[in-house]
Specification:
The strands form 2 sheets. The protein has a 7-stranded mixed sheet. It has a 5-stranded antiparallel sheet with strand order 8-9-12-11-10. Helix 1 packs parallel to helix 5. The protein contains 8 helices and 12 strands. Helices cover 27% and strands 27% of the residues. The radius of gyration is 21 Å and the shape is elongated. The chain is α/β, with parallel strands linked by helices and 280 residues long.
Length: 280
């Protein structure tokens, strides 16, 4: 099957599985990545190796029509942030892979909110028909997995990465049958999540250490935010523990050679990896 991939490096093991099974990559659409927390360098390398277009741009009809004219059978998206123009289903399939168990948690960047709110019924991944309404198309394949009490954005992403190659293999191999037997999403059960704001990322010293730790897990290496020393900081790693104390929340309890200890409502937060936030 000839296909075009829309996304970034995260889903490349699944794309490689498709290539190993004989499917033909004809182009890659990506987006600007910082290549610190999200990457597309391997996408670019694969495109160069296979001599196919690598396009960092919002996909438009004039991009897609040449692929259709060359017989592309599938436009496959995973983590692509832009809306892709409608694809004539008589000419090609258009499928999106979404990192939740739809119809729960539609939208861009749903994983932090799933962790923050312990949305156990939303944990999973879904391949669905692409429509002009984000994440609302008929379901082709999906798999649920457990949400750990200590889930982090990294462990959730790892669970996606662990399952995606097999799911994509099944999708590519059986796509005509899956397409014809797709199930409509139950709109009565659908939820949509807005992308997280800076306020969602902010560690609130007036909260319990349990809630502070949950916020830190939800953003992990992307960084939560914290205010202390009259400055805003990005925090990448911390530890917490419960302990009675008389300090006001947000007070600096101790400074170590590299760590800073901050008082919270019912304990302490040890900031281990942090740096000043760049104010845009």
């Amino acid at each position: 099957m000839k296909f075009v991939y829309f996304g970034y490096d995260f889903m490349l093991p699944a794309i490689q599985r498709a290539l190993d099974e004989g499917h033909e990559l004809t182009g890659i659409f990506s987006f600007e990545c910082d290549n610190i927390f999200n990457f597309n360098r391997q996408c670019q390398a694969i495109a160069q190796k296979r001599n196919v277009p690598f396009i960092i741009s919002k996909a438009e009809d004039f991009h897609l029509n040449p692929f259709l004219d060359k017989g592309v059978e599938l436009f496959f998206a995973a983590g692509y942030p832009y809306k892709i123009p409608p694809i004539d289903p008589t000419r090609a399939y258009a499928v999106n892979l979404h990192p939740t168990y739809l119809p729960k948690a539609r939208g861009l960047m749903p994983i932090p909110r799933i962790i923050l709110e312990n949305m156990i019924d939303a944990a999973g991944l879904t391949a669905h028909k692409m429509t002009q309404d984000f994440d609302a198309g008929d379901i082709l394949l999906q798999e649920k997995f457990a949400l750990s009490p200590e889930e982090t954005v990294e462990t959730y992403s790892a669970k996606i990465a662990l399952r995606a190659p097999e799911l994509v293999s099944n999708l590519f191999t059986n796509l005509p049958e899956l397409w014809n037997n797709a199930s409509a999403q139950d709109e009565n059960k659908a939820t949509t999540i807005k992308p997280p704001s800076d306020n969602d990322r902010l560690l609130d010293w007036n909260e319990s250490i349990e809630n502070i730790a949950r916020t830190a897990r939800a953003f992990g290496n992307f960084g939560s935010l914290a205010r202390f020393d009259e400055q805003l900081w990005v925090v990448y790693n911390l530890d917490v523990w419960e302990e009675d104390h008389a300090l006001p929340p947000g007070a600096i309890a101790a400074r170590l050679s590299r760590e800073t200890l901050v008082a919270a409502q019912n304990g302490f937060v040890c900031l281990k990896d942090y740096q000043p936030a760049r104010i845009e």
